[in-house]
Design goal:
Elements (H helix, E strand, L loop, with lengths): L9 H15 L4 H19 L1 H10 L4 H28 L4 H22 L22 H24 L4 H35 L1
């Protein structure tokens, strides 16, 4: 949770997902499903605690009933990470491709589904954690889900480094992603100033 506002410690998100990808890379579909479920249960259980406060303090709901509601709601939301883990494990792919492309794609797909299915709940979309960090630079190009994908790709590369797989290539890719994101982030204010200057001359 500290990866999101107000703490906004984005590297925690990268490290946490690197651990999840580390656990997913060689696991069976069933194992990936349950690892994803418990991961999601922890993520959403902590992340939607404000709903409990709303129901008890402002809605007048009894505390035990509100706690049960939050538990069931978190369990439902955890099905999306669980399904993402199951899906990626069902698709054959080399380890490096799985870690840096397939798992990020599967996670992002189910994040997108969560954002609109059954009226949608986009809360805790991973891309939001990148606010004010270099990878925010990808947002104008691909939106928040694109930033989620890049974040998971970065985590996958970090996981490959930890596993000792293609270390030089993975380190180079990590640096390229971060530097390109920072370049995009720094270019945006310059573009805005240019547009304002052009408008003033007109």
């Amino acid at each position: 949770m500290v990866a999101f506002a107000p703490a906004g410690i984005y590297p925690v998100a990268v490290a946490t997902f690197a651990l999840l990808i580390y656990l997913w890379v060689d696991a069976s579909p069933k194992a990936c499903f349950w690892t994803g479920f418990w991961f999601g249960l922890g993520l959403f259980g902590a992340g939607v605690s404000w709903v409990y406060v709303s129901m008890t303090q402002f809605g007048g709901m009894p505390a035990p009933l509100a706690a049960l509601g939050i538990a069931l709601f978190s369990a439902f939301l955890a099905l999306f990470p669980a399904a993402a883990g199951w899906l990626q494990a069902r698709i054959p792919a080399p380890e490096a491709v799985r870690a840096s492309l397939l798992i990020p794609a599967s996670w992002t797909l189910f994040e997108w589904l969560r954002s609109w299915l059954f009226t949608g709940f986009p809360w805790l979309t991973v891309g939001y954690a990148a606010a004010d960090w270099p990878l925010q630079g990808y947002a104008p190009l691909a939106g928040v889900f694109g930033v989620s994908f890049v974040t998971l790709s970065l985590s996958g590369l970090a996981s490959s480094i930890v596993r000792g797989k293609r270390i030089r290539v993975s380190v180079a890719a990590v640096l390229a992603l971060v530097i390109a994101g920072e370049a995009r982030l720094r270019a945006r204010p310059s573009a805005s100033r240019c547009c304002r200057a052009t408008s003033a001359r007109r």
